[in-house]
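Run log, item B.
One chain of 106 residues. Sequence copied directly from the ordering sheet:
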Amino acid sequence: MTFQLGSSLLDACVLAILEKEDAYGYSLTQQVQSVMDISESTLYPVLRRLQKADFLTTYDQPFQGRNRRYYRITEQGRIRLLELLNEWQIYKQKVDSVLIGGNLDG
């Protein structure tokens, strides 16, 4: 995608993915990459920030002799996701009104 997208949209994508199911870092990166260009090294600071804000928790699970760190959305994370989804709808309507036409009233 050629559009540069901000950290709020990245947060929304991460939280939306984790609302569906817990995921480990590499898997999460792959899913986010399906909608935006991001590397694992970019995603891990985002995950730490979301965890520090109590939007995510982590747990480890053994996998092929190693531990995988899984991320899980918290109740506060679900609330934040709803806020971000609402903000996204407003933003999307405004952009659509410019790009496609129509009115800003929705």
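Observations after the first pass:
- Residues 7-99 form a domain with the Arc Repressor Mutant, subunit A fold (CATH 1.10.10.10).
- Helices lie at 7-20, 25-33, 40-52, 75-99.
Flagged for discussion on Thursday.
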